[in-house]
Design goal:
Layout: H1 7-10, H2 12-26, H3 32-46, H4 49-61, H5 66-71, H6 83-96, H7 105-139
């Protein structure tokens, strides 16, 4: 694959802003597990090999099981995910596939009841952030394992 623009090198301020959002998200209520589930599920949907590689490794480092990572794309059929995680995964799909419907009223109500507005806002921002990273990685042909 032909090399493409290295945004981190030619526009370091843009990356600095993205990293600032990541830093903020690490100070919120989302657990490391929840953050990695969001990152992995969005990256699966967006087919971002670079991010799937990175976040699978991170999830394992934080104690996630191989079984849950393997079954993540079939989370609805798996009994391995908690009710909170299921809501987070449903939100991740709704925001990532925003053109389908976005967050419908039922999902929003369940999420707000489960998490409250502040935590829900942090979840949405985490989903938005990984979708931006996916688009950067795919657009610039970032390669996994590097």
């Amino acid at each position: 694959m032909k090399n493409r623009v290295d945004i981190q090198t030619v526009q370091p301020q843009a990356y600095k802003a993205m990293y600032a959002l990541e830093g903020y998200l690490q100070t919120g209520q989302l657990t490391k597990t929840h953050r990695e589930l969001i990152k992995l599920r969005a990256s699966q949907i967006n087919a971002c090999a670079f991010c799937l590689d990175m976040h699978s490794k991170d999830a394992l480092k934080y104690g996630e099981s191989v079984e849950r990572i393997v079954l993540l794309s079939a989370w609805r059929e798996s009994g391995l995910f908690t009710e909170e995680e299921r809501i987070i995964l449903e939100l991740t799909e709704a925001v990532t596939l925003i053109q389908n419907e976005g967050i419908n009223a039922d999902l929003y109500q369940r999420a707000e009841t489960a998490f409250g507005q502040v935590h829900l806002a942090q979840i949405i921002m985490a989903i938005v952030a990984i979708n931006a990273w996916n688009r950067i990685a795919i657009s610039t042909h970032l390669q996994p394992g590097k």
